[in-house]
Design goal:
The complex is a heterodimer of chains A (322) and B (191). Chain A is α+β, with helices and mostly antiparallel strands and 322 residues long. Helices cover 30% and strands 19% of the residues of chain A. The chains are: A alpha+beta (322), B alpha+beta (191). Chains A and B meet through α2 and α6 of A and β4 and α5 of B.
């Protein structure tokens, strides 16, 4: 790891000013950033430690749960209001990383963590995300873990955050030092610029997330399928939130991880269920709608079936479908 | 093995490696880059096992390297150095963390507890005793991390079943696969 200068500002304004200098980067938990710097995937001349900022609170007020960007994964997962009103968020967090990392990693950084694509992390390979224009070896290479949705001829790397998939399912809002916008607008698909992963400007600081407390979000679950039982990234994951009126689906959110280049919401799958009964037929329709635009490569076609089965299993569990 | 003989073994190892690498060290310290790095060091205070230590470190030095290389607290092990194996687990204000994934400069106002800080004089911590009784180690490389993580696992209350212990100890790998005995030791100590 190359050396850098270090600053620990005491307020947001100072932090943002320091992070505005070229080559500067925020550090919170550091659990991803330090590995990226060791691997040479990122290099920064100045590291701005934001752990001294008062951004760690989790509060519920006026029908909204506000989670500070510096709240740790373990604290958010265990918080009574989150467990009661946003179970999908708690479940996604408890299925992420290890207990130690969950004690360290902040939720603001979690949604900005970078892909685990082996070509991106390997200093000896080309990668359009790492160095624009150098090419993507995953297109014809080892792409079992790669995206079937939202990819391009420049990048297929999967967004690795479970929390981001959950926040997308509960209509979260992103707060930064300068604006607020829907969580759905935070991440962008790679297109021709895979190095650009979010809409955040240089030095812009996520200060927290706001999530409305709704009956929809209160009935939500997360299902994560992976290559080993625990401490592993998703091969496929599904977050679902469901509001029923009798046997009819009044409203639904369906979001997915492991299959797409950004946390993925499928309005098509939701439309296949909204206003209809939850049956084998409608669930199958929703799954088909999800994968209609899927593009597979040599080793990841299995995800097309797997993600539909995961959706099927989760919806039956959540909705009691027959 | 007594603490005294452990110290001697380490001294011998250190002396040997110093002799072998002496020429390389001499060349490397002469480079301008090394000089620049020394200038960019910052003075910090780390509170480890109840004692304050003042030291100058480059900002890029991890808590793990500061503990091992600067404070000579080599009980905390360096396995993967990227947060995957858990051998470097220590407690920070009572919470378990991976010391390879955090910078020493970021941990100045933190009470750090390492494996060296668990025993009370000659009295081992109950989980250390349980590891011995249950034969919960072979090579020992992961053991300090397993024990620190296990201490936290018990204080968190994640010991209601063997399955729960396995899930909450998943951040600590054991290449000798002593997992059944590690789980048993944690169950014993949690009682």
């Amino acid at each position: 790891m190359r050396n850098f200068t270090y600053a620990a500002p005491r307020n947001v304004a100072e932090a943002v000013r320091l992070a505005g200098q070229p080559g500067a980067r925020f550090i919170a938990g550091g659990t991803d950033l330090l590995n990226l710097m060791r691997d040479g995937a990122q290099s920064h001349g100045a590291i701005i430690d934001i752990n001294g900022l008062a951004l760690g609170d989790i509060v519920q007020r006026n029908g909204v749960i506000r989670i500070g960007a510096l709240a740790r994964m373990s604290d958010v997962a265990a918080h009574p209001a989150v467990r009661r009103s946003l179970p999908v968020v708690s479940e996604a967090l408890l299925n992420s990383a290890s207990p130690q990392v969950r004690n360290m990693a902040a939720v603001g950084g979690n949604v900005l963590q970078r892909t685990r694509c082996g070509y991106f992390r390997d200093s000896g390979t080309t990668c359009n995300k790492k160095t624009p224009g150098t090419g993507c070896p995953a297109l014809e290479g080892e792409n079992r873990g790669h995206a079937i949705l939202g990819g391009s001829d420049h990048c297929l790397a999967v967004h690795p955050s479970d929390l981001a998939v959950a926040l997308l399912a509960v209509d979260a809002v992103v707060l930064t030092d300068r604006r607020r916008f829907p969580f759905a607008d935070l991440h962008v698909v790679p297109g021709t610029t895979p190095d650009q992963e979010t809409v955040l400007g240089h030095g812009e600081l996520i200060t927290g997330f706001e999530i409305p407390v709704t009956p929809l979000a209160a009935r939500s679950r997360y299902l994560k399928l992976r290559d080993r039982a625990t401490f592993e990234f998703a091969v496929v994951s599904v977050a679902a939130a469901l509001a029923m009126r009798g046997n009819t689906v009044r409203d639904v959110r369906l979001t997915f991880g492991g299959v797409a280049t950004k946390p993925w919401r499928s309005p098509e799958a939701e439309d296949a269920l909204r206003g209809k009964p939850l049956t084998t037929t409608t669930i199958t329709e929703a799954g088909r709608a999800l994968v209609r635009g899927a593009v597979t490569r040599d080793h990841n076609a299995f995800k097309v079936d797997l993600v539909q089965r995961a959706l099927d299993g989760l919806l039956r569990d959540l909705g009691g479908a027959r | 093995m007594t603490a005294d003989s452990e110290f001697k073994r380490r001294t011998v190892l250190k002396a040997g490696s110093t002799a072998v690498t002496a020429t390389f060290v001499a060349t490397r310290t002469a480079t301008p880059a090394a000089a620049a790095q020394t200038e960019s060091s910052v003075d910090i205070t780390l509170r480890v096992n109840g004692h304050d230590h003042r030291l100058a470190v480059e900002p890029r030095v991890t808590l793990l390297d500061a503990l091992r290389e600067r404070l000579d607290l080599t009980g905390t092990k360096k396995g993967c150095d990227r947060g995957e194996c858990g051998a470097c687990t220590v407690l920070a204000d009572g919470r378990r963390i991976k010391s390879c994934l955090t910078l020493a400069v970021m941990r100045q106002n933190t009470e750090i507890t390492t494996i060296e800080g668990l025993a009370r004089g000659d009295r081992l911590h109950p989980l250390q005793e349980a590891f011995i009784r249950r034969d919960a180690l072979q090579c020992g490389g992961c053991t300090p991390g397993q024990i620190m993580s296990g201490v936290a696992c018990i204080s968190e209350g994640h010991t209601r079943s063997a399955d729960e212990i396995r899930e909450w100890m998943s951040g600590n790998l054991c290449r000798c696969a002593c997992y059944p005995n590690i789980v048993a030791a944690i169950q014993d100590a949690a009682k």
